[in-house]
Specification:
about 120 residues, elongated
Length: about 120
């Protein structure tokens, strides 16, 4: 696991990119061949090749959704860059960032309580 020499708070001078508010990823994926799902009328059974095609399409969709999620984490977590594609590193840095945000929130809540006294 990669450790950073930067103090945890120093790396998180953060404001979200404008395009992440919509939840859409701006990164384009490669032009992998897409397999479309087979849809039949009610009561018709799928053949084995059609079942296989549906399974492949479903699995590709699942993998794409996971990739989009990791891409969104890379955009949101300030210590990550698009060149960092290790899923373990992305998750580790995300956990560090969440812990930092929780700590920062607790500090701000304490300051608010002190100000209201």
């Amino acid at each position: 696991m990669e450790q950073s020499d930067t103090p945890i708070g120093a790396a998180y001078n953060y404001s979200p990119p404008a395009d992440t508010a919509s939840g859409k990823s701006t990164k384009k994926r490669g032009s992998a061949a897409r397999v479309s799902r087979v849809i039949k009328k009610k009561g018709e059974l799928l053949t084995e090749p059609e079942k296989k095609a549906n399974h492949i399409a479903s699995e590709q969709k699942r993998r794409m959704n996971i990739r989009v999620g990791y891409d969104q984490l890379i955009q949101i977590v300030p210590t990550l860059t698009p060149s960092q594609r290790s899923e373990a590193l992305i998750l580790q840095k995300t956990v560090e960032y969440i812990k930092y945000l929780i700590m920062e929130r607790e500090i701000l809540e304490g300051q608010m309580k002190e100000a209201n006294r």
